[in-house]
Amino acid sequence: MRRRGLARRMLGVAIGTSAILGVAAIVSRSAVGWVYPIGSGSMERTLMTGESVFLRYGTDVENRFDIVAFRDLGGGASIKRTWGLPGESFAINLSGDVRINGEFLPDAPGRPAPTVIFDSRLQAIDEHWRHGGTAFDPWTREPPPAAGESEIWTLDGTVVDRGSDLGLLRFQDRVTDGYLTEEGEYVHGPNVVQDVIVEFEVQVLSTGGYLRIQLSEQNDLFEVNVLMYEAEEDYRALVRRIVPQRFDRAGRTSFGIPRAPVPIGEWVPMRLANIDNRISLTIGEMTFQYDYDANTPRRDPSTGRDAPFSAGPRAKLGACGLPARFRNLRVLRDVHVVPRGRFGVGTAITLKTNEIFLLGDNSQNSRDSRERGPIKVEQVLGTARAVVLPLGHFRRL
Predict the structure, then answer these.
(1) DSSP alpha helices (H): ranges in the chain?
(2) What does the alpha-carbon distance between residue 331 and residue 177 come to, in Å, rounded to a whole number?
(3) Computed over its alpha carbons, how large is the radius of gyration of the chain?
């Protein structure tokens, strides 16, 4: 036993020494790059205070979303993410969405991933989702799961009337630019975020009804019905955009998806996303998309004017006419840029051929091109390639 413990300690020392020598080798190659310490929280949660990244020397900004260090006006250095490239038109609207040359932000490699704000493997569903009504509840929670596993909730949809919210789990939390920690604590953000994603796994126990998923944004409701009746060839999905009290809008139109793949008795992952005016529905390994025009704003009762905010549950899921089980629920929100500052906010700014627009990932707590203006390419010192310190935090960027 002692020899085994000694061997483990020696192996740990060897690995640690190798990692240190590797970092030292990188630092010593001053012609290639150097290690840059992160001294502020402007890039959290991508880069955390106290970490260090390896920067490759060079002023070439190769790709949108590259993380670069640059010389600021005070003579020091800062690190941000590249959003706008030379010659482009760049704008941030009042909803926190970015437009490049008048179009929504391209889904290019390196785009900041959606941020988790609820996860049933870390949080209790009934603390964040409403279910049933005051007199009747068709939902039941199965016995508590093991640590790190999701709760499973069962719905008896055979007793739910068509279109009734009793057959829906209804997400009650406000969607803000906060985040969920690895320990399951939600850190609230001060800014409302419009674009939302809901993910879950469902096990349909019999046919005879349909699954329901809803997302709301401003005054629009997007509903997916996955129809599952007796014949498998009748399985299909119907996607609708509904504008309450404005039934004359073209948004009432819908489209169908044939052969929605939801085998009876099997766990099937599903995902409904509303990102940059694109509805994306994933069932198993199949994804379907639907683009729409601008959202219908709600009227702000305090001002009497239209305002870009949403009311009521932002996500709902469940079924009608059939029994089903649900697990691994997650709600995510899209990247949100706080519309603050005088450069590119509200009104587009056109970047010169030697300028880039940089933003911090922690938008609320970052001073960047929104206040400072575009950065000249010659101010760039290098591109971040990996987090290298502390040793246990190593990851590529």
Answers:
(1) 2-28, 369-372
(2) 13
(3) 25
Q: Which two tokens stand for residue 214?
A: 């809803």
Answer whether 19's CB lies under 8 Å from 26's CB. no
CA nearest to 92, candidates 333, 375, 309, 342? 342
State the chain's mean pLDDT as an integer: 87
Q: Quick one: pLDDT at residue 2?
A: 39
**Residue 156: which of 42, 322, 45, 7 has the closest Cα?**
322
Q: Which amino acid is at 83?
A: W
pLDDT, greater one: 147 or 13: 147
Cβ count near 10 (within 10 Å)? 10
Residues 6+ apart with CB under 8 A from 59: 377, 378, 380, 381
CA triple 129-134-140, angle to 5 deg: 55
Q: pLDDT-derived band of residue 61, with 50, 70 and 90 as boundaries?
A: confident
- Report how far residue 295's alpha carbon sits from residue 239's, in angstroms, rounded to the nearest whole number: 16
**φ, ψ at 76 (rounded to 5°):** -90, -165
389: left (phi over 0), alpha (psi -120 to 50) or beta: beta
CA distance 271 to 198: 6
* 219: its two tokens: 């005054």
Cα 275 to Cα 130, 196, 333: the distances in Å are 24, 7, 9
- Report field, pTM of the whole predicted structure over 0.85: yes
Write the single-letter amino acid at 114.
P
Q: What angle do CA 300, 306, 308 make, to 5 degrees?
A: 85
